[in-house]
Amino acid sequence: MANDNKYWNLEDFVDSLVVELDKTRETLAIKAINKPLTYTVKDLAIDLNIFPTFDGDTIRFITAQPGQQGASKVNIQLGSITDQQVRATTKISGLKNDTKIEDIGVDEKTRNKLRKMGVNSVDDLQQVEKRQVDIQRASDNEIDYKTLANQIQKSRRNMTPPKVNGVSLSLDDNKRPYLHVKGENFTLDPRYPPVTVINNQLAEVMEFNTHEVKILLDKQHITQHESELIMTFDPYTLVKMNIRI
Amino acid sequence: MIDEAFISFREIVDKLLDIPGDFTDEENGVHSYIYEIEIGTPVELDISVDENGKVTIGSIPPMYRVDTSFLPSYHSVTIKAEKYTAPEHGE
């Protein structure tokens, strides 16, 4: 037995076991070309003599060393399953629009708590919400749902940041001057109309959509000096630029 | 890194299942073959963990048949295998 006996997670152990069995299957097809009678593993059971340890969060195991008495027995049984059965019983992970919980910047405690509840992605969280489950109550108030929801929105907004392609000065039908800001991903959430400020003074937004914003200008906005334009499209997005009007 | 006395779990499985399963009695014109087999064996395990938590399983059936003061900790593996049938083209 090697000397560097270390603690391991059951999940990592089973992963390794499955990978080993998969490799066996991969070579089987080649082996079968020259050896017509070959065998494939249908079920596998493994009895382990191990000592468990609990660090307050996860249970890990270490294999019993020679001469060590009193080890626990863990019996793992792996059955075989066809790829069709896998598709029918498993949620597809890593979908293009799905965001993993660890990617939205939540703290480790919240992440672990969510993982224990089977929530690994934003999509999982939405499924829970659809069933009217109060995550905050289900987690004994250990998860601040408002903060979590904000972080999810922020993370989504980071994936589609606003982009300004051009700013021009125009006149509306009443000959009033306005700034025409063109770009992408400006207003994505209809609950939040854009708010614009020019040189620390609120400016009226005449029209807006995801590609453009039209900002009405007052006389005081028009100077020969550089002006500071700030636009917010939702609580997570702020665009700041210097323009000369 | 697995201890050099051990081999990968895949090799153990390969070796256990590398059996001649054909029985032919040419005189009487009888041909039999094993279509399912269950093998159980005690094994020693060397489970190593790298810095990323990745587990590598090294294993070996009992190497020595002598009584020593400190006996190795034998785990047990049972494999049920069946005759491999290559999938149809396109499956």
Automatic annotation (TrEMBL), chain A:
<protein>
    <submittedName>
        <fullName>Uncharacterized protein</fullName>
    </submittedName>
</protein>
UniProtKB/TrEMBL annotation, chain B:
<protein>
    <submittedName>
        <fullName>Uncharacterized protein</fullName>
    </submittedName>
</protein>
